[in-house]
Amino acid sequence: MGAVILGTGSCLPRRVLTNQDLEEIVDTNDEWILSRTGISTRRKSSKGEETYRLATVAAENAMQMAGVTADEIDLIIVATISSHMTMPSCACFVQKELGANKAFAYDVNAACSGFLFGMDNADKYLRCEKGAKILLIGAETLSGRTNWEDRNTCILFGDGAGAVVMEYEDGARGIIGSNLRSDGSLWNLLYMHSAPSSNPDIFQADNPGSHIMMEGREVFKYAVKAMEGAVQELLERENVSISSVGLMIPHQANIRILKKLVSRIGIEEEKVFINVQKYGNTSAASIPIALDEANRAGRLQPDDLLLVCSFGGGFTWGAALLRW
Ligand code: COA
Asked: What is the dihedral of CA 305, 137, 14, 258, to 10 degrees?
């Protein structure tokens, strides 16, 4: 019917950054962070834990579960906004590290929705190239894109990577459909500049550096409304009721956003996988990390309906339905 997931994997940096650690860096406290975001800890990369290295280990774990070797991979897609280089792509570094010699590789930039957008790309590619195998990865080291003096943002984000191996399968399993959206007119509510241009003729007086900038309250409002709309439209289009969903894996941005979303779409809380308390918001990595944890914990059984949804800078947002 569509693209199925053969294996999942993830990789988190070793170093744990607690709310108490953050109290040493900015004027904040554990109680404020926990009550506003639900986050207790996040991971922070150290030397040797660049985005492509986390991505590579996550990919190896997913390939091992799938029983697929690097030389069988035809396409590597990495969703990221924090590669250590702008060129080559993070995906090319992963391809090199794995020795996936026949694969072509590229990155997707859709911020926190990158994995979801990449999954849709992969599904549509596999419907045309039915024998292909795809490695889809979400990987971030947002610790390197964080303004550690800004308490509004530095408490939210974390590092990590998650991966899946996908192939096409006839039958009932696989991706049923997705509903993806963007609204570039709202870019300035959540953004991150590139390095300053070397062309002095291009105006950039307002370039504050390559840090995440955010209007938290506005983002909050849009995030809930946008994900709710994307999920409702998708369920309606695919003629699926929310009660038949076995597991929902939302982008792990913030517990308050998730709670509001869950109550608005009317899914039981125990069907929603949440690990934001441990890893914070890992942007494009959050869904595949959660998917790997859920899978390894036995939360997904054959035939289960999986609902995935996300929201991020752009704005970008959407939802996808998959039969496990
Ligand atoms: N510790 C303590 N106080 C903090 C703080 C921190 N880490 N960050 C902000 N504050 C203060 C503010 O300075 C402000 O103080 P003031 O009233 O004296 O000016 C007060 O807390 C309230 O700030 P506000 O920004 O209105 O808080 P909020 O209730 O909206 O919570 C967020 C802030 C960021 C947690 C919340 O807006 C949010 O979750 N937004 C969505 C963010 C997100 O998920 N982005 C990624 C989407 S993919």
From this structure: -40
Q: Is the CB of 253 under 6 A from ligand 1?
A: yes
Residues 287, 281: Cα–Cα separation, whole Å: 10
Query: What's the structural domain count of the chain?
Result: 2
pLDDT interval class at 205 (50, 70, 90): low
Whether residue 1 has pLDDT greater than 80: no
Distance 41 CA to ligand 1 centre (A): 17
The residues carrying an active-site annotation are 112, 251, 281
Ligand 1 centroid to residue 204 C-alpha, Å? 27
Domain that holds residue 21: 2-171
CATH code assigned at 145: 3.40.47.10
Q: pLDDT tens digits for 283-307?
A: 999 999 999 999 999 999 999 999 9
44 CA distance to ligand 1 middle (Å):
21
Nearest-CA residue for atom 38 of ligand 1: 216
Whether 94 contacts 165, CB under 8 Å: no
